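[scheduler] slot 2 assigned
[scheduler] job type: sequence-to-structure, two independent chains
[scheduler] chain ordering preserved from manifest
[runner] begin chain α
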Amino acid sequence: MRKYGYCQSNSDHTLFLKHRQSKVTTLIVYVDDMIITGDDTDEISRLQEQLSTEFEMKNLRGLKYFLGIEVARSRKGIFLSQRKYVLDLLTEVGLLECKPMDTPIVKNHRLGEYSNQVPADKVRYQRLVGKLIYLSHTRPDIAYAVGVVSQFMRNPSEDHMGAVVRILCYLKSSPGKRLMFSKNAHLNIEGYTDADWAGNILDRKSTSGYFTFVGGNLVT
């Protein structure tokens, strides 16, 4: 990619960018899958030809599915979802037929680490929370709950596992909920943040929350 004039991102080493005549071409790669996009159609065609001389490649045309993320397009913009990912996860843990929950976490929960807590399966807990962390990329509605359960990865209890199961039961109520990136005429960056005050019941630390918009679309 460097030979073809692309710069490797310092924040994500799988991302390569090339600016040419006020246009940009982007390539991101994961093992043997890659996405090529941008507004420089000539450069995109040239890059595809150059890469095909280096590797055996197949062009799948418009992006529809990548690493568990489903992509759909409309006149309003692009929709990202992980419906299949959610259903596969529920099937894996035996909760596909569970009763859906209205919220991903109990209001005013008192999750913490206590001396009398009953230990949970640590490996299973870490695996499930890891999958939920990845899912929260397109499901910001579970981000807070996932942030809470991820605090107990080192020493999970049955109460913590119960909180994870509740998140899964919440997902059953809307497995196909989508995140929309609409077409807007600007790339303004807006950020919002807030925190509770001494919300942690054990060390009295505050918990922060934030979200960032680029061009009117939620990115973090």
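[runner] end chain α
[runner] begin chain β
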Amino acid sequence: MNGYLKESNFMMVEEGFTTRDLLENLLVELCQASDQQAFFVADLGDIVKKHLRFLKALPRVKPYFPVKCNGSEGVIRLLAELGTGFACANKAELVQVQSLGVPADKIFYSSPCKQVAHIKYAASHGVQLMTFDNEVELSKVARSHPRARMLLGITADSSPSAHPMAFGTTLKSCRHLLEAAKEQAVEVVGISFHLGSRGLEPQAFAQAVAAAQLAFELGTELGHRMHLLDIGGGFPGTEDSRARFEEVTATINSALELYFPEGCGVEIIATPGRFYVASAFTLAASITAREEAPAEQPGSDEEEPSSKKSLTYHIGDGIYGAFSCLLFDSLCPTPRLHKRTCPELPLHSSSLWGPPGHPEDRIAEGLELPELQVGDWLIFEGLGAYSTASALPGGGPQPHITYAMSRLAWKTLQLFQGKPAQAEEERESLCTPLSCGWEMAETLCVPPVCTPASII
């Protein structure tokens, strides 16, 4: 073990004890203490599985985890233990990762728009790998970090309207920027692109790799020693995504073999974020207030009044906290109702909002839920990416995170050190298929005992 993650950093659980069991125990304690604060449960074993799955699907690609996706300490410690690199967007993330002892050669300063002070910090702390896509960024680096190793970011989509916030230069502008880098004695070592997760199609990766190969040839022609390709992120983090992970990676492998065949001397990295952490985090939040819309009056004496209500619920966290992922490209996960017993209850049109007093803090609408009361708890799965769970330490109030890992996952992690193939074999032989334990009945009652292994 490398010493980044210790048993004291998480709760060790025995086999057969699931995320649902842990949530149940924590909710019982909170209810007894009358504590209604939202909290996360993080299944670190799920991240171990995702890492092994990534290495198996993309054996030539080294992952650099984007800290902005989830900078919680347990996640960073675990990924450092697994040997991943880290993509940092600013000085705060650089400081956080290096404070844990991650070496500078495993850090990629990946922001396309960097503050000069942050560039100087990276230079003084040995972080060399960076990216640029315009002359302004190139000049800042040339003045502040003469030892930087730069990746030229290119647009990976020929239709910018599909990714209106995408960074990167066009292929037409590559020659000018590569020539400018040569003039300013900036070392360009490769090409970077990032598709993101919006409307991801496997074929888009193939087109981006083809474009990167053209940019590589141009850089080599101009005298740059090109040897590094960054294929970015955008990999689906949950199984309900439109494009399945293995479908995407099969296309990537084919494109890499065609344009950057093994043995060509090019190292390949990627920045998978939500793939690693989205499914590992579950949020529990309680109802803090409710409102009921006036019932519609029947049109005549013969008509029976409808028993269906329109209900609005407020919970203890919102889009500026645990649900900040909704400000990006995510949809609110369907909530699960936590109740020990639950009779057959009619469903009502419901909406979820953050704390009262914030009219813009809308979490979800059009939900069909049984009638809930203040103090009831809702469970949200898949909130591990770009939510409060991702907040850096010291960034303000945030829900408590309980990290958990099974003894089997801990053993797998130990086996993984230098022996990923053996760890994969061990996982396959000892772990049952992932079963999250949240297969709720249509009435949203708590289900019977589920198949073990939510936490591997």
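[runner] end chain β
[qc] chain β: The CA atoms of residues 408 and 456 lie 6 Å apart.
[scheduler] slot 2 released
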